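[Meeting: bench + compute handoff]

Bench side (C.D.) handed over the final construct sequence. Compute side (W.E.) agreed to return the predicted structure before the next meeting so the bench team could plan truncations. Sequence as handed over:
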Amino acid sequence: MTQPLDPTVQEFVAALNDNDQDRFYAILTDDATMSDDGVERNLTLWTDSEIFGSNGRMNVEAVGDGGTELVADYTNTRWGSMRTAWRFTVRDGKISRFETGQA
């Protein structure tokens, strides 16, 4: 059985799947950073392109590291469906960093 997601990470996933940009950005720290396939990205530009501008959806398949790492089937209209890994750094109830890439 897979472990539960960290509540902050769960809110990230829910906001992403609901296409709710206000909720999504509210769960991030003001100085949040991210990378995709090991390359540092501009968080706002990346999320506009890969999530909100392309109807991104995440179906969580496995959870690890106390609920701050997950593997998901990620689908958007830009790339289709792919197996992805996500790792989150949670600070004071918000996400300060996330890293994603193909799993």
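W.E. noted at the follow-up: The two ends are 20 Å apart (CA to CA). C.D. will use this when planning the next construct.
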